[in-house]
Each structure stands twice: as C-alpha cells, then as structure tokens.
Fold:
Amino acid sequence: MPRLSSAQRQLNLQMLCYISQDAAEHGVDFILGVWEFNAWSSVSTFSTQTPTADGITDKNIGPYIYAALKKVLQQCPAISSVQIRTNSESGIPAAQQVSFFRDWIYRAIREAGRPVTLDLRGWVTNPEILNAAVNAGIPLRLSTKY
Structure:
C-alpha cells in the first residue's frame, strides 16, 4: 500500500480488531465484507478503481488475497464471518470464480483455526461455487441481493 506507512497499516489492523472485538462484547456478529477482489479488472463493470497495492497482478492476486485474509482472521479473532460477492461484481471472471474462491478464499477461512462462517452474497450463485464451499467444510450462509 504505497500511500500508507507501516505504522498506518498497523493502526488500521488494530482498529479492525478493536471494532470486531467491541461488537462481539456487545453480542453483535462482526461480518467482514470483501466484495471486490479485483476492482480494477475490466470484468468488473461496476468499478472504475485502480490498484491500491503495489505489485498486484492477475497472476498473484489469489495468493495475495489468501495471505491477507488469513492474516486478518488470525489477528482479529472476533471476526465471525466473511461475506464475499459471487458474481461479476467480484472482479473475478466467471470462468475463474470457482477455483479462485475455493483455492484462496475458502482455504484461508478453513485455515483460520476457528469456526468462521462464509457468507456467499450474490444475485446469482453458481452451483459450482456453492458446491466448492460445501466441500470446503466451513460454516456456510447464503445471502441474496434481492
């Protein structure tokens, strides 16, 4: 993140942990929403964003997302769920979504070391994405847009 110093990144992580922990202490489930994985991709017609992290490419975005999500879940144990978009708005091409979600997102959640619910949100959910989530052996919830 070229615009953020190491100290600023650490402060952001600490704030996320604080907010999720405070929510848990008040009986509120904190759901981390990760909606656009590749917001600058041409497949995402809903976004005009540009990359905010140096070095992220179509080839390394999966390992980057995996490592980042795994770290956040380890550092912020009060996050109870992760919600992801499961359609073109995710920025991941439809033909790559099953393997991307299965290999990077579902794996990071499964390796969190505690139960974390995967919340699949979309106006159309590909049955293969759902099957891969079921086969990942993690708690699962479906949320629809409408």
About this structure: The chain has a mean pLDDT of 87. The first strand starts at residue 30 and ends at 34. The radius of gyration is 15 Å.
